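Let's practice the habit of predicting before peeking. Look at the sequence and jot down your guess about where helices and strands might fall. Then scroll down.
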Amino acid sequence: MVSEPNGPRPTLEAVAARAGVSRATVSRVVNGGAGVRAAVQERVRQAVTELGYVPNSAARSLVTRRTGAVAVVIAEPEARVFSDPFFGRQLRGISRELAAADLQLLLMFVEHRADYDRIGRYLSAGHVDGALMFSLHRDDPLPAMAERAGLPTVYGGRPDWASGTQGPRPLYVDTDNRGGARQAVRHLLGRGRRRIAVITGPLDQTSAVDRLDGYREALGTAEPDPRLIADGGFTAAGGERAMAELLDAAPDLDAVFVCSDLMANGALRTLRARGRRVPEEVAVVGFDDLEPAAWADPPLTTVRQDVEEMGRLMARLLLRLLAPGTAAGADAVELAPVITEARLVVRESG
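Done guessing? Here is the structure:
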């Protein structure tokens, strides 16, 4: 008989009595312990279902030494995260994998420098089993915090910490940013464009650096015309501003590779305002192939990366780190960084 919704909460002892086993046996089954026969496990699970028993999470943590929670730390302000579809897609992939593993997601942002102390204290206090961190900047203290806490961690994006860490090489998931940028610029060159500008993201992030390097490689020069390079900060407003700077500095430009679709939408607004026809006068190629590419007018030629899959892969790597028998933070042979494919998608803007 299932307990009444407002009645007494079923206890471990009640489950043990219903299943005809000891309290310790019920505890082992409920907490995933070994050494219980399959038939006995089935009786216990049936009793749990019949009584509506819900394990006490605090008691369970004492047995398993697990919290059942994972911190997802995004080193950006909350407003930036919720205005950029990139983060939503990545979080969706992460959330689905963690939910399937019955783990809770704890989302943390960095609004101010003071937030690092708060996040560091939380991570080192044993509140979570592991962490997923992304959108980190070169001088970010988060990796060192995770290492000091001994916390299994997977990163989104190729690490390039200024000070380096003393532990095993970091586990991360990234896309082929450099290769994707090369595809974009070679496409523009193949369309006869010769004055190709670039709008980068912040150059203290490896994704922006790699895309700028791919741009340089495709042009075949280590030092392109500095008038053709502007930083858009990975935001739509930044893309709008950077495009204006480029047109002022190099009015003869005939194409622009924009290192995110969000910035590309801003760049298109500026081009329209300046009376530049796209793609007749200025061809535009973005990077991401997320919602802003569909919003663009004209539809945006862009480099596709599977952001949701990247989130899933990050979560899967962390789950493997947390699996029994894998030392926390160990650089096991089967665990290695993952680089996903970037592929050009041609539409009207380019």
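How did you do? The two ends are 66 Å apart (CA to CA).
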